Amino acid sequence: MSYKFDIFDDREFETFIRDIIQKELNITLQSFKAGRDKGIDCRFSGSINNEIIVQAKRYTNYNNLKKAVNIEIQKIKILNPPPKRYIFATSLDLNPSQLDEIGNILKPYLINNDDIYYESKLNNILSKSENIDLENKYYKLWITSTNILKRILHNSENNNSDFNTERILKSSQLYVYNNQYLKQALKILNKEGPSENFVGRNYFINDGEKRLQMSFEQISSLQNHNITNE
To answer: Strand, coil or helix: what is 80?
Structure first.
């Protein structure tokens, strides 16, 4: 299974990377509230402070990522004490040349390029059977997988799997978690009108596997009334 990690917002991606690194290194990382981070998204302080520094960057364009890396390395240079190990993660996929280029920018704090996490490597980690808990925890990843969505939709009442899959993928890019919004979502789903499909798709995104069958059965019945109005 191959996932796209730009489905996360910046904060979600940081949390996802924190959990990945903790599992990979069998350590507990310190994480911090949102705000200026001095080049630190997470860290491990064992025998010394700043022993391991983790930085996560969510970008969809390599040139923008490279600019950000050049800024981050300047922050790392003034950390006291300097990190013994620096780990960098990006939502982008990288080819060998790009991986080497990022690695060279981050020297000498990056021990080697194995401490750079990118799309292909993250997918490789998630594919391991021992990491199924991470895959299950971050159900928002499922929205980027057409295969998973089609398998889910196959069990619902409607026959528009391709249509709904495409619409959900687009909606997921716009979705921002809002608890108050979700409280109203089910009420809206019980009414006729042009907005039920969008609400249903985003309710699906938030509530994950527990609500899948219910959400799409509701969308299926509502779609007959509203498809011409969208």
So the answer is: coil
For the chain of 230 residues, list the mean pLDDT of each consecutive stretch of 10.
87 94 93 70 83 93 96 92 94 98 96 97 93 85 67 54 55 53 53 54 51 47 47
| Residue 200: exposure state from Cβ atoms within 10 A (0-12, 13-18, ≥19) | buried
* Cα Rg, the chain, nearest whole Å: 20
Query: Are 216 and 203 in contact, with CB atoms under 8 Å apart?
Result: no
Domain residue limits, the chain: 5-137, 140-229
Q: How many residues are given for the chain? A: 230
C-alpha span between 117 and 110 (Å, rounded): 12
Positive or negative CA dihedral for 76, 77, 83, 89?
positive
pTM above 0.85, yes or no: no
Q: Topology of 5-137 in CATH?
A: Trna Endonuclease; Chain: A, domain 1 (3.40.1350)
Q: Kindly report the CA angle at 152 between 146 and 157, in degrees rounded to 5?
A: 120
Is residue 82 classed exposed, middle or buried when 0-12, 13-18 and 19+ CB atoms within 10 A define those classes?
A: middle
**E strands within 63-212?**
85-90, 116-117
